[in-house]
Structure formats: structure tokens, C-alpha cells
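Hi P.,

Sorry for the delay on this. The queue was packed all week, but I finally got your sequence through. Input first:
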Amino acid sequence: MAELSESTKKLIQQYKLAKLTEQLVANTPRIHVDEVAQKVAAFYEQIRTIVDWKEEHLMRRAAIIRKLKRKFLDLELNDFTKTEDTAESLLLEFIRGGHFPNDKIEESKIQEVQNIIDKYIFILKNNPENKAGRAGLQFYNWLIEVCSCEIEEALCPSIREMSLIEYMFSKMKKRINVSEKVYETNFLKKENVDVQIYIAVQLALFKLDKPIISYNLIKYKYPQWKKTDEQFLLKISQNIYKIWRGIEKDLANHFGAKFYAICEKYDTPYLLLGDILSQIESEKLNEISDPSFLEPLIKSAYSKRLSTLKQRMQRAAFYSTISIFATKILSLVILEILLAKIFIGHVSPITLMADVLVPTLLMFLIVSTIKRPSKNNLNIAVMETMKIVYKKKERDIYEIKAKKKRGVITRMVISFIYALSTLASFGAIYFIFDYFGFPLSSIIINIIFIALILFAGTTVSKRAQELTIEEEKEDFVSFLSDVFFLPIQGLGKWISNKWKKYNAVAAFFNVLIDMPFSALVEFLEKWRYFIKERKDEIR
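Then the structure:
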């Protein structure tokens, strides 16, 4: 028998608690919505999934954010005077849209969510630095996004996920060593190292996005955050703008990518351990202290993740492509048609077909060439999982080093070569389309299409490496592909980030469809209840 580490014992207890918490409490009133209204609303939410596509585990909160922003807009128009029914109407919308199950959320959650909304309204109203302009809007959106994270946590506590994050965080704090030269760069201070590790762990384990990481950072820095004490909230309100600025600075840290690279490489044993603790019965959790009991469980968990990995990647590729078509390509195709009519006088059907087929074939090619982990990777995964579960006298150390300083001439030469590769990449695409007689406007738009798909495809292929621990061997072909595709991927990332701010299709849905549709579904539900009452009277 090997001895479990103290952090592993604590993790097992938290998973036991999670399993007890997930059991429904009998005879507790629960929120119910009409089934017909739920089906109608759920159909609309499926359409919104395409428009607002994010990774699957982030979709529910994206819907919460969208609906919460609309509610806050209504409240702000009324000067926050009528807030008492906000939580109930929100929860009904969440359940109708299929984001939470019907007849499962306790009615007592309505008041809990209302208290959360009231807290953020209080912070917003008492913030002395309520600024106008772009910064003010960004702060306002950030605060609502953080509020949505707290609401989601109240409705569906992520005990297991947060326990695993804390577990990996405690391990990585001991294993990651930062070189003294890093501090000399002034990009990172010693007191901020733990924060960077905490951010990296969340990104590596569950690919969490900025809003939920911001919320977790607030709880990490301010353990009293969930309090509704007015004096504490008033103090927080006075500093909330600075808190936001500080978190934004933490998320954009120069060395963040280095912390993430280490955590992402070694996240596999933590994911496998989380799967094992979730699958086995509470009574058998302590039996993992026996390596002969744990080893087959690791292999089984690894096999299950590997078998579902390809399916998840194909689904992510499909929705990513559809989302790009719906929100970006549709807009650009309309623009291309207008430009073609202005400069050429007609629209070529071949050009429009290329707009559809080239990005689709490119995404298919990227997904089909994703490599599965080697057989040796399983042995490494078993060994690394054993390392974190049991007590060890020695521990692995992962070094964070500062970049080697390059001379001015070296930097100039490297920059010049990169500029040449950029010109070669875009020049090759331009030459191919020009050779087939595409007009300039069409070539530019197709370059944008290719950049977006390459960026999306690269994101999907990186997710496919979530089980890979062993060092990947790069050959000359992969080096050349990086040289050629990296500038195009960079353009795709830039466009994608900009599009999030100016997504015309999403704005169209929010303003012209979302609000009226929600009112229609609410009316349908009331009408259905009216019909049921009349039917009961007839009986």
C-alpha cells in the first residue's frame, strides 16, 4: 500500500461531498415551466448556439450573460427601481431555453439569485468611478459577466471542478520554479506568481474563459466576496474599478503563456484522476491508495477520454465552421456581392462556391490530420498520475526562464525573415486565386475566410492534444508549415477577437429577435396555463 498525499485525501473528501450535494433533496418545491414553451425556447437557443458558438462547457454561461445583460438594460432604463422579480423571470428563461433541467432547481434558488443580482446592482450604483466611453462599457460588461458566473455557481455548484483546480494549483505551486532573471525583466513580481499559476491551471484543466477566471480570481483575492454585508459591499464598490483593472493586468501578463504551457502539458494526470473519482462509488474512493487498484482505473479513464476525444473534436470543428459561416462569412459574402456588383457588374457563382467550399475543405483537412497520442503516452500518463496521488520525497520541478536577450542585428534579421514569410504566405494565396481569375475583392475576402478557419482549426487541433504528455517531435515539414501558416493564423486570431466586439449578426439577434421572442415564449406559457385551467374547470 502506498500512502496518499494530504492534498489527494482532501480531494477525495471534496468529491464525496460533491456526490452528496448532487443528490436531490426530496419534498422540496421546484421550479416548473410549461413543456411546450420549453421546446419552442430550446429550439431558438439551438440557433443561438450557432451564432454565439463557444466551447460546449461555456455555452450555458454565454446564454446567462446574454439574458442578464438584457435584464440589466431593462433595470437601468427604470433606474433600478423594480428589481424584485428579476431573478424569477431569469430562472424561468434559463429553464425554458434548456440550460437547466425542468423540475430540478429548488424554488429557494430564486431568492438566492435575487440576492446576487441585488449585490451587483449595489456595487454598480455605488461605484465612484463609473466612467463613460469605451472603458466604462468594458467595465460594465465585465461586471455583468462576473455576476453571471456567480449565478451559474449558485444554480449548479461546480464543486468537483473547483476541487480539481485547487488540487492542481496546490501541486503546481510546489513544482513551478521561476528564475530570478524573470523578476529582473519587471514583467512579473514574486507576489504575482501564484496568481499566474492559478490562471494557468484554470486554462489548462477546463479551458475556462475570461469571465469565469475573473470571478475565481476575485474569490481567490477576496474570500469574503459572497458576503452580502452592506459595509463590505460598500468597500468593494469603492475599489471595484481598480479590482477590474488589476485582474485584466493579471490576465494579460507577459509570462502567462509560459505558465500555461507547463500546466497544459501536465494537466492529463489531473483530468484522469478527476474522471476516476467521479466514476467510482464513494465507498471505494479510499481504495485508490492501492496502486494495483488505481492503475487499471487510470488506463480505463484514459481509454474513455481517448475514445470520446475524436467525437468532441469533430463536433467542435463542425460548430466552429457553421458559426463562422453564420456570423462572419455570411456578412462577408453579402459584402462581396455588393462589391462585385459595384466594380464588376455581376456576381460569379463560381466565386460564391469557392467562398463556401475552400474554408470547409480546409477545416476538414485540419481535423482529419489531427494525430492521436502514441501508445507510449499511456505509460507516461499512468506514471504521472501515480506521482501526484501518492506521497513522494522528491518532486519534479518545472522551470520558468526569461527569454534570452537578442542583439539588435539578430532581432532585425529575424523580423525581416518573418516579414518575408508573411509576404510569401499571403502572396501564395493571392497568386492561386488570381490564377483562377478571382477579382481583388473576392481574393481579399477569401484570405479572411482562410485565416478565420485556420485559427479555428488550430484551436480545435490543440484541444485534441489534451491527453498528450510526451514531447512531440517536429520534422522539417512541420517547421515549414509553421513558417507558412503562422502569419495567417495570427490574422485569423486578430479578426476573430475583433469580431466578438462587433458581431453584427449577434447584435441583430439580441435587438430584433431575442427580446421579442422571449416575450412571445412567456406569453405562450401563460396562455398554456390558462388553457389548462379552463380544461380543469370543464372536467
